[in-house]
Write a structure and sequence with these properties.
Order of helices and strands of chain B: HHH
Low-confidence stretches of chain A: none
Low-confidence stretches of chain B: none
Largest interface: A-B, 83 and 70 residues
CATH superfamily of chain A: NADH-ubiquinone/plastoquinone oxidoreductase chain 6, subunit NuoJ
Number of domains of chain A: 1
Radius of gyration of chain B: 17 Å
Largest sheet of chain B: none
Helix content of chain A: over 70%
CATH architecture of chain B: Orthogonal Bundle
Number of strands of chain B: 0
Distance between the termini of chain B: 56 Å
Radius of gyration of chain A: 21 Å
Shape of chain A: globular
Shape of chain B: elongated
Number of helices of chain A: 7
Distance between the termini of chain A: 68 Å
Order of helices and strands of chain A: HHHHHHH
Number of strands of chain A: 0
Number of helices of chain B: 3
CATH topology of chain B: Helix Hairpins
Mean pLDDT of chain A: 87
Structural class of chain B: mainly alpha
Oligomer: heterodimer
CATH topology of chain A: Four Helix Bundle (Hemerythrin (Met), subunit A)
Chain lengths: 173, 101
């Protein structure tokens, strides 16, 4: 088998392992409970997920993912973490009851959904994928069929901006 | 075995589970918010892989809108957390019990 045949599979396993590992470190880092560490591992999760998007030929979304999430959202998170003084937070322990309850409920949900996935086999008899999610194809669709949702989302962003300015005023009424 | 739709969906499910675990287990509002982002990203991954394997671009458009809405949501949510911290000097969910009966 040629290397170019198995390279996407190797890259998939690499990026998937990196995504899940960094996701675990966002949620439950055994070495530090500092929110800054969580934010940094969230950046790594998002970047490796952009790698998965590239493997799925969604090139535009991979770029958007890195620019919007790794660029804007995480910077916002870090600003807020620096703004709040969270030294005291680090000393608090994770409650044992919460951890056990979370692990049990999430474990049950994961078992059910993965079993359902095995039983359903949604990708069993699909044709070979040919879709290319380049900027051209996506822009074509976004400005013809989806032009109304696009404009509505711009209004949503405006509303969010006004809301944030109102909320961060000093004397909140 | 060749990587197909099931593999991507498995990663997406596991990532969603991690986000849910974070929301249940952690007590810091900021980390809960990051876990919410993980869950949104898991949904995005599922949508992109469905879109790719069904040869249908509509899924990627939906992901584009989800990313936009998530950015707006993070901005508003973090502003709320900052406003809350100004009043209570804490970003810890166990200190925010004023709505408890």
């Amino acid at each position: 088998m040629a290397l170019s045949d198995i390279l996407p599979d190797i890259l998939f396993y690499l990026f998937a392992a990196l995504t899940l590992l960094c996701g675990v470190l966002v949620v439950a880092n055994p070495f530090s409970r500092n929110p800054v560490t969580s934010a940094m591992f969230l950046v790594l999760t998002i970047i490796s997920m952009a790698g998965l998007f590239v493997l799925l030929h969604a090139f535009f979304l991979a770029a958007v993912q890195i620019i919007v999430y790794a660029g804007a959202v995480i910077v916002l998170f870090l600003f807020v973490i620096m703004l709040l003084d969270l030294k005291e937070e680090q000393r608090r322990k994770i409650k044992l009851f919460g951890a056990v309850a979370g692990l049990v409920s999430v474990g049950v949900i994961m078992i059910i959904s993965l079993k359902a996935l095995r039983a359903a086999r949604p990708g069993a008899n699909l044709p070979a994928p040919q879709l290319e999610g380049g900027t051209n194809a996506l822009g074509q669709l976004l400005f013809t069929q989806y032009v109304l949702p696009f404009e509505v989302v711009s209004i949503l962003l405006l509303v969010a901006m006004v809301g944030v300015i109102l909320l961060s005023k000093k004397d909140l009424k | 075995m060749h990587v197909g739709l099931e593999h991507y969906l498995t990663v997406s499910f596991l990532l969603f589970g991690l986000g849910l675990l974070g929301v249940i287990m952690r007590r810091n509002l900021l980390v809960i918010y990051m876990s919410l982002e993980l869950m949104l990203n898991a949904a995005n991954l599922a949508l992109v892989s469905f879109s790719r394997f069904n040869n249908n671009l509509n899924g990627q458009i939906l992901v584009f809108f989800i990313i936009t809405v998530a950015a707006a949501e993070v901005a508003v949510g973090l502003a709320l957390i900052v406003a809350l911290y100004r009043k209570r000097q804490s970003a810890h969910v166990e200190d925010l019990t004023s709505m408890k009966l």
